[in-house]
Specification:
Layout: E1 6-8, E2 15-24, E3 31-38, E4 43-47
Length: 63
């Protein structure tokens, strides 16, 4: 079963999927970032704290 993290696109407000996450070093210490791509094909690499992650979609059991 695959889990999908969803958020909204910072540019157009459309639905966007978190493609991957990584931790990048900064002068204040490590910061978790996420690459997102929206339905209109915009993409961003942003600090995770700037995203409003929706609850993960989980298919109903038995499907």
């Amino acid at each position: 079963m695959s889990v999908v993290d969803l958020t909204s696109c910072p540019e157009c407000g459309g639905a966007a999927e978190v493609e991957w996450r990584t931790v990048l070093e900064s002068t204040d210490g490590p910061v978790e970032h996420a690459r997102i791509r929206c339905v209109r094909r915009h993409w961003f690499l942003l600090p995770l704290e700037r995203l409003a992650i929706a609850p993960a979609y989980r298919p109903p059991r038995g499907h």
